[in-house]
Design brief:
The chain has 700 residues and is α/β, with parallel strands linked by helices. Helices cover 53% and strands 13% of the residues.
Length: 700
């Protein structure tokens, strides 16, 4: 065939290619990748009936949850049924009420079909009209022709008036858009062409979050192991976090988002503590309306994946602020552990999960469904089997011995089905049969240590956690051990006369590392072997370092320094924000009449400069005297009498409650709170100037 003939054939082939707009191809691809949402589609179809009970559907969900994709699907479904459908992005609407009304009415006028035919108005990103929501509902929406069905999609929860108003509550349905069901998520990965070996890791990472699934699918193509993680995907972190941070109206709101992400559940008092600001009511209400936050009675809970993305971003970009928020939250929870109860243990543990020192030891999740309970019928054989699997036959023998003889201090970790997963089994040394105790290598080693290094006095107790372990058919559960250990940490404040505690641990690097970071040191001479497996005993004398001082040290190492115990007490050079936190922590300790020896400010350059070589006063005493001096110096301030009075009756000579302190200061409670904020700010500024001078190597 000639060249001309070949060219003609090619032109003929080209002419056979279907001609369509690029937009149509895009629409087909969108439709091909849309999966799930059967419940929402069914609800929408019921709205399209002649006399539906629901005429307005308000969809809300976290960023990336698929709201826009669902609106596209609803528009396609309406058109397939020959109904007119108009979709508007509220983010594109600018100007005031008049401009918005013109734009929406103009779009409505273009609706396809006869004037009496049903039509659908879909508005995406409705949160952009939040300031006009009441006007939109009562004026514009109420004035729409009856043939229209309306779907509004937004990030925030709709205003409560939609459900409280007697008229709108019958016509409007509020629906929270959750993640995809597992089958739909699998279908999406299949349509995205993700190889089967990579899918399990992507499901574990993204759950049913549509945007995260799509982004993680791209990562899954690149990761040979098929086990991507947030740390492997800065794009995923950036996309998920930015979708929420970009809508925060202020820096304080961004911090509120981070606080919600960091915590297991965020209450108003906890938010106030983490932000260092008592006035958080407006921020909490704003946060409560965000669709990535779910409201429960104890507080707000963030969407898992969104929360982890926000935490990863904060730790990567602002590590100091990340540690600061954690430290503030831990301080609040620990100070109120007695009020909150055992749930505070899980809250503290969850908050600590982002610290590198903790991540090296534990894997912690928000809601495992696990809880701690007493020993019940049928538990002992299950726990004996667990002990043998992890610690050997000899350990099983001693478990069976002690559960028969001294089960009083056995706490059982259970799953949501109440099945035993682990235990913390303490033995009260003085209550044990001496001969039996001498034959148990662990109890004998602990008893020898107590008698040789820390003899008990009348009324004192020494208790040994002989067994501390958790696991199921898949193997050990470090998070279960962590939950039990966190619970055990509060024993010194709940067990009368407790002087010493010990805990038997397998002798390995993670447990030795934990001993260094926790300040619960390895007791010398307590190493022993069972079934060829080495063990040692971690322990602490609560008479030497009481609970409040010990927990201050743990927080300092894990949060501020991230260094093991025993590194030394060199002066801590702090940033301004860290210094302000340290002042608040010290004042909080003073208000509770606690020693200041273990607070971070006691190691500051200004305190060390004052104390110098004089060892007659402890750092805490020096700090207390410094506070007293600087508070008295505020008498020169223009409101000096009030400032000195509120600081004196709140911290130096603390009244039991703030209202009592206000009375002692001779001020109305509202005035007292304002003066207290001002006084703390002025005092902090004076102390900061002293700190800067003490930190200056050229200063005399």
């Amino acid at each position: 065939m000639t060249a001309n003939g070949d060219g003609a054939a090619e032109r003929e082939k080209i002419s056979e290619i279907p001609v369509c707009r690029l937009g149509e191809t895009v629409e087909r691809e969108r439709a091909r990748h849309f999966v799930g949402r059967e419940a929402e589609l069914a609800l929408f179809e019921r709205m399209l009936s002649a006399s539906p009970p629901v005429r307005v559907l308000l969809l809300h969900g976290a960023g990336g949850m698929g709201k826009s994709a669902l609106l596209d699907a609803l528009q396609r479904r309406a058109r397939d049924l020959d109904f007119g459908a108009i979709q508007i992005d509220a983010g594109d609407l600018t100007g005031g009420r008049e401009a918005v009304e013109r734009a929406i009415r103009g779009a409505i006028d273009t609706a396809e079909g006869a004037p009496g035919d049903l039509a659908v108005l879909l508005i995406d990103n409705f949160e952009a009209l939040a300031q006009l929501e009441t006007w939109f509902r009562e004026h514009l929406l109420a004035d729409l022709p009856g043939r229209f069905r309306v779907v509004l999609a937004m990030r925030q929860q709709p205003a409560s008036q939609w459900q409280l108003d007697a008229g709108w509550s019958r016509l409007a349905r509020v629906h929270r858009l959750e993640g995809l069901e597992p089958e739909a998520a699998e279908s999406l990965l299949d349509r995205l062409g993700v190889p089967l070996p990579a899918r399990a890791g992507i499901h574990a990472l993204a759950g049913g979050h549509p945007l995260a699934l799509t982004l993680a699918a791209q990562l899954g193509h690149e990761v040979a192991s098929g086990q991507p993680a947030l740390a492997d995907s800065p794009q995923l972190v950036r996309e998920l976090s930015e979708r929420h941070l970009v809508h925060a109206p202020s820096e304080a709101a961004r911090d509120a988002l981070f606080a919600c992400a960091l915590t297991r559940r965020l209450s108003r008092p906890l938010l106030a503590a983490m932000l260092g600001n008592d006035d958080v009511e407006e921020l909490f209400e704003w946060l409560r309306r965000q669709s990535f936050a779910r409201e429960t009675l104890p507080g707000l809970i963030s969407h898992d994946l969104v929360g982890e993305a926000l935490c990863a971003r904060l730790e990567h970009r602002h590590p100091d602020h990340h540690r600061r928020l954690i430290r503030r939250g831990m301080r609040h929870l620990l100070d109120r552990a007695g009020e909150i109860g055992e749930s505070a243990i899980s809250d503290v543990l969850y908050l600590m999960r982002g610290l590198p020192a903790v991540r090296r030891i534990f894997v912690i999740g928000r809601d495992t469904g696990w809880h701690v309970d007493r020993l019940r019928d049928g538990d002992s054989p299950v726990l004996a089997d667990l002990t043998e699997r992890q610690w050997g036959r000899e350990a099983r023998h001693w478990f069976e011995t002690w559960v028969a003889a001294a089960p009083d201090w056995l706490a059982v970790l259970r799953n949501a089905d109440h099945r035993p997963l682990g235990m913390s089994f303490y033995l009260d040394l003085e209550a044990l049969d001496a001969e039996t105790a001498s034959r148990d290598p662990a109890v004998g080693a602990f008893r020898d240590h107590v008698e040789g290094h820390a003899p008990l006095r009348r009324g004192e107790r020494a208790m040994l956690a002989r067994f501390l372990l958790a696991g199921d058919e898949s193997g050990p559960l470090p998070a279960g051990v962590a939950q039990l250990q966190c619970r055990n940490a509060f024993m010194p404040v709940s067990v009368e006369g407790l002087a010493l505690t010990g805990s038997v641990r397998p002798d390995n690097e993670p447990n030795r590392t934990q001993a260094r970071y926790s300040g619960i040191r390895a007791l010398p001479g307590t190493e022993f072997s069972q079934d060829g497996q080495p063990f040692f005993i971690m322990g602490h004398d609560w008479r030497v370092a009481p609970f409040a001082e010990w927990i201050d040290g743990v927080m300092g190492r894990l949060v501020s320094l991230g260094e093991p115990a025993g590194r030394g007490d060199d002066a801590a050079v702090m940033t301004r924000e860290d210094f302000e936190d340290a002042v608040r922590d010290a004042l909080s300790a003073m208000s509770r009449r606690r020693s200041l020896d273990r607070v971070e400010l006691a190691r500051s350059p200004m305190v060390q400069r004052i104390s110098g070589a004089d060892t007659r006063q402890s750092p805490g005493d020096v700090l207390h005297a410094l506070f007293k001096r600087e508070i008295q110096a505020l008498s020169e301030h223009r409101r000096g009498r009030d400032l000195v009075a509120v600081l004196t009756h709140t911290y130096l000579e603390p009244a039991p409650k703030q209202r009592a302190a206000a009375h002692e200061a001779g001020l109305a409670y509202g005035t007292y709170r304002r003066r207290l904020r001002e006084a703390v700010a002025v005092l902090t500024e004076r102390l900061w100037n002293l700190e800067r001078a003490a930190s200056d190597p050229d200063a005399n």
